[in-house]
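Help!! Second protein's tokens look totally different from the first
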Amino acid sequence: FATLPQVLLLALLAVWLWRGIARDLAPLAALQTTLAHRDASDLSPVAVPPTAREIERVGEAVNDLFVRLDRSVRSQREFAGNVAHELRTPLAGIRALADYGLANPTPGVWREQLQRIAASEARASHLVDQLLALALADESDAVLQREPVRLDALVGDTVLRHLAKADARGVDLGARGLDEGEAQDFTVLADAGLIEGILDNLIDNALRYGGKTITLELAATPTRCTLAVVDDGPGIPEAAQRDLMQRWAQGPDGQKLGQGAGLGLAIVARYAQLLKAPLSLATAGPQGGLRVELVFAKG
């Protein structure tokens, strides 16, 4: 009988612990039930009642996950909708060109129509690439990897990559400031892929709408690096500069030429925002032209 009080005490302690653990885990069980019965398309936050801090953290982590998933799903839906909408016109044009060529027995007409089809396909592919770049940029906030990037080396590689296209269009593409690489430090913490995307879009815009000269300029101070793309084309009126950094906004030259979809500068602006690099547009000089400048902080 001497052990009976100890047994009773242990039993009472076990019951007390069981009820305490069940009470503390009840919010977690409720969260599990809520998630189990939730529709797969419902990404709204779940209610997290104030309980133990550990349970609250689980609920907050679940809600943070829902926010990221919702952003990803919205980006994918926007991408799919944009592709479906924007490709309708070029695909219809390709079909019309093909039908005209098939209905005409002249080999010369076939060749002309095939060349036009190839050009239409190239524009459609470029549009899809731009839409995909914007969709990926909208999801890049949480996964952006910053690492040391040598802007002088990246600019040099970019110029070489676009040189053949520029020569084919009779455009003088070059760089200024690269020879100062030994005296100046052009290393910044950034994402090399995003900087390449910025330069690719700016050079592509300059080749389409600029003049006969495109220059990539680099300059550095002890605390920052400045990267600019300058052309001697017609430039952009100051009143239209902000609008052209919005999606689907197209300048009069692009409308007149029937080229582009108004996404190039929007991609540049979004990438610059992700890189936290201030972006500015200005007239290149007294004769006009356009200067697009980004400022990167060192370190």
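Here's the second one for comparison:
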Amino acid sequence: MSEQDEVVDLPRDALTGSVGTRLKQAREARGMSIDSVGRAIKLAPRQVEAIEADDFDSLMSPTYVRGFIRNYAALIGLDAQTLLGSLDQQHVRATPQLIEQANVGVAMPVQSARRKWLLPLLAMAGLALYVWFEFWPADVPVAGQPDIFRIEPSPLDGPASPDAADSIRFDPADASVSDVLPPPAELSSDTASDAIANTTPPEAIAAAAPGQHLLEFTFSTDSWVEIRDASDAIVLSDLNRSGSTRTVNATFPVSLVIGNARSVTLKVDGQPHDLAPSIKVDVARLRLE
């Protein structure tokens, strides 16, 4: 037989005093020990003693106190709401508590002057890179680096030494395409096409194969010219000196990139071609169909 079955309940009106006193009287009337109450409602004996002694300050927050008393009252058969009402009169209310923690060791971030200027500088660097990639002529030689796209002179360009150049004269009136180019067995079709595009004088270019167009460039300042054919292969990529003229036979469509384009005059089959609509930041990009 348990401790609860060995005793007779006291009348509820016989319980007087504070909340803790009434709980203690009811427990003793049932013959229950502090340890048995603690085991039943999951509290330590010292917590049960604190409740019966009305020492609620030692039981953490008022919210926990009210929960402990509700469980205690249900265990011994008392009206929990009545006890909680009496608890309110003892100023034990479940009110939230705001605890201010001082010096928690977290410093607020302070933006330094260096970081303040970092984002604008990065934005300006990004804009400069965009302008450089968008408008800088493709394949422009850089000082200190080999010119990997420069077309090396072929044997058709004539003698390399000044003495040999003085001793050999080219008479356009007496020359023909057959005189300028070697026999077909000695020069492949690709090599012949490159030779015509880069080394052939104007008189020989005029006799180029049907379907090709004559491009004539006149340069008043140093200018870079790149010509690509329909397969995006480079036909011409070279730096042209101020005061020079360049003629090229090309099969359309071709794509042109011309540096210092405001100082360059272009004729297509002898007719002037306006570069102004294609110029951005003094670089012309256009496609001839």
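Reply: Different proteins will give different token patterns, so don't panic. Confidence is low (pLDDT under 50) at residues 1-9, 172-189, 191-200.
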